Amino acid sequence: MTKIKKENMRALLGGGDRRSLGRAAEAIVLVRRSPNRLGELFACLWEGDPRVRMRAADALEKISREKGGLLQRYKAELLGLLAEEGQQEVRWHLALMTPRLRLTAAECERVADNLQRYLEDRSSIVKTLAMQGLADLTQQSPGLRPRVTELIRELTRTGTAAMRARGRKLLKRLEAEAVTD
After folding, report:
1. N or C: where does the chain have the smaller number of CB atoms within 10 Å of the terminal CB?
2. In what helix (H) or strand (E) does residue 114 lie, and over which residues does it extend?
3. Cα–Cα distance, 37 to 45 (Å, whole number)
4. Which residues, other chains included, contact 178 with Cβ-Cβ below 8 Å and sequence gap of 6+?
5. How many CB atoms lie under 10 A from the CB of residue 144?
6. Which three-class secondary structure state does DSSP give residue 137?
7. 3-class state of residue 126 by DSSP
8. Per-residue pLDDT tens over the stretch 131-171
9. How far apart are CA 170 and CA 178, in angstroms?
10. What's the confidence (pLDDT) of residue 1?
């Protein structure tokens, strides 16, 4: 394993080609080793440099896969960002992160409404990951399942190839869960 020195998170995530993840993996390692640096990484979501925001969102989304609870203290900020963020690379990570938070019934509705708006995004990736986020949200809010299932059923018929493929996978899961409820 490489030795990663204490480094400014913004500097770590900046520079290079916007299409690359740069050193986002190193930021994840830093947070794993020093969880107190999570706030520094989180603050990068509001940086002026879109590369920094994108890479911070990528790192935070990967961290949330492993330890979703780590982001819980930032729930209000993440829900606000979900509603307001315009950068597609950040939106697609928010679509996956926010359903992993412990949410109230009202917050689940708010997240579902925002993710449904993401389905109108011009980016196929944002739309596809919004579908995933909506399906994931039904885990903690089963009352959303009929609405989400119908949306995904429609998008599986009309969406891009990626949306249709993801939709088929999600429909199998949603329909199986509906049978067990």
Report:
1. N
2. helix 105-118
3. 14
4. 145, 149
5. 20
6. helix
7. helix
8. 999 999 999 999 999 999 999 999 999 999 999 999 999 99
9. 12
10. 35
pLDDT of residue 181: 64
- How far is it, in rounded angstroms, from Cα 11 to Cα 84? 25
Which residues lie closer than 8 Å to 179 by C-beta, 6 or more apart? none
- Which residues, at least 6 apart from 109, have a Cβ–Cβ distance to it below 8 Å? 141, 144
In the 8-state DSSP scheme, what is residue 131? H
Tens-place pLDDT, residues 38-69: 999 999 999 999 999 999 999 999 999 988 78
Secondary structure (H, E, C), 5-70? CCCCHHHHHCCCCCCCCCCHHHHHHHHHHCHHHHHHHHHHHHCCCHHHHHHHHHHHHHHHHHCHHH
Query: What's the pLDDT score for residue 14?
Result: 84
132 CB contacts (<8 Å, ≥6 apart)? 95, 96, 166, 170
CA atoms within 13 A on the CB side of 20: 8
Q: Which residues are CB-neighbours of 148 under 8 A, at least 6 positions away?
A: 112, 134, 135, 137, 138, 174
What does pTM read for this prediction?
0.90
152 closest CA partner among 99, 84, 88, 144: 144
> How many angstroms separate the CA atoms of 30 and 36, rounded?
10
